[in-house]
Amino acid sequence: MDFRFTDEQQMWHDVVNDFMVNEVGQDLTLKHDLAREFPEAIYRKMAELGWLGLLVPEHLGGMETDATMFAIFCEGIGKYSLDTAACIMTSVFTATNICRHGTPEQQERYITPFLRGEAKFSISISEPQSGSDAAGARSTARLDGDEWVLNGNKVWCSGAHLPNATIAILARTSADRYKGFSLFLVPNTTPGLQIKKMDTLVRRSLGTTEFFMDDMRIPKDALLGEVGKGWQYIGEHLDFERLSIAASQVGNARTALDDTKRYLSEREAFGKKLAEFQVLKHRMADDETELAAARLLVYHAADKLTRGEKATGDVAMAKLFAAKALFQIAFNGMQALGGYAQLPEYHMERYFREAKHGMVGGGTNEILRSIIAKSMGL
Ligand SMILES: Cc1cc2nc3c(=O)[nH]c(=O)nc-3n(C[C@H](O)[C@H](O)[C@H](O)COP(=O)(O)OP(=O)(O)OC[C@H]3O[C@@H](n4cnc5c(N)ncnc54)[C@H](O)[C@@H]3O)c2cc1C
Questions:
Q1: Is 135 in the pocket of ligand 1 (CB under 6 A)?
Q2: What is the mean pLDDT of residues 10-33?
Q3: CATH number of 234-375
Q4: Architecture of domain 121-233
Q5: Pseudo-torsion of CA 14, 17, 21, 26, nearest 10°?
Q6: Tens-digit pLDDT profile for residues 302-337
Q7: Which atom of ligand 1 is nearest the CA belonging to 200?
Q8: Does 364 contact ligand 1 (Cβ within 6 A)?
Q9: What are the extents of the domains in the chain?
Q10: In ligand 1, which atom is closest to the CA atom of 133?
């Protein structure tokens, strides 16, 4: 058993961290958050470095890295904001679906521009009446000659409105609860598709949307893989997706705690530094402990996935624990910064808002507990 990164992993960690410090930084992150603006230049730079292709096979032009290297990347890109991390990660998972199940023509049409940073993907599972119970989705797709006709209302589809975005839409092709779903690749400029941006507390840079499909016609070859396999395809990347969120939460928690520590070490009250008050010191010690435990759970789950072992319960534990750790650290940060925590330029309110969403997005804390219980045989 070795709890340290290998030299290669440590080098990768440092490269991503240096990129975040030198090319992104807290001020640019704040600017994107306040302006509700996608970090296009950062996305393009990461594409130039080949980082969008971390999970893309080498024969399709990617880096084909493992779960541990991907977790290191996600910890790094979550450094200043979970939203920045989501701006990159959201596209990655549909790309992996296309690499696994797409035709050579779909791979050429979608993966090549994606790796160049010219295209993005979003994923649409949730509907107004079905979030956690995702299989309750009702949107339909029926074949009419050489075209699929889609109808329905999707919600919370992050990044669907962005230029050159293609949406992976989960829709019903039969009534079977799970085998009744198929997955379709739909460019966001398709006639019959009406996209509306939602005014949310978080995901301000990536943006999230609601959309309506009203007899929306798409070509027959917009189907990804086989009819009736949509649910399976979405499930294939769920462990990676949850692991990536947990890793970015650990990265963000590190920054939130460092910011708190710095503030308490500089600010004075009653003739001494705030960090000298034992109650505040102990709170930070508790937070450091939670963070260390969350990080170990993340890399333990990543290591199992890298070894090709089943890790659904471990990933759920990592995400549940990391979400709670980040929320506690950001909550304590809000208290430590007093009134100044309210100001966006102190960044803590962003960590706090995003930490709350971390308990819902990618599987709520309650659903994760159910997954953990199932992995225990309950
Ligand atoms: C900003 C944002 C971005 C998002 N991006 C996307 C996206 O890109 N694509 C996409 O498809 N979806 C996206 N989502 C949707 C997200 O996945 C859902 O919000 C999430 O799955 C929860 O679903 P819900 O909001 O319908 O809540 P519900 O499922 O209605 O849950 C409400 C509450 O009930 C609890 N609950 C539900 N079932 C159980 C149970 N069996 N046991 C115990 N408690 C339970 C939940 O944990 C929760 O606390 C996004 C959501 C947000 C807010």
A1: no
A2: 98
A3: 1.20.140.10
A4: Beta Barrel (2.40)
A5: -160
A6: 999 999 999 999 999 999 999 999 999 999 999 999
A7: 1
A8: yes
A9: 7-119, 121-233, 234-375
A10: 29
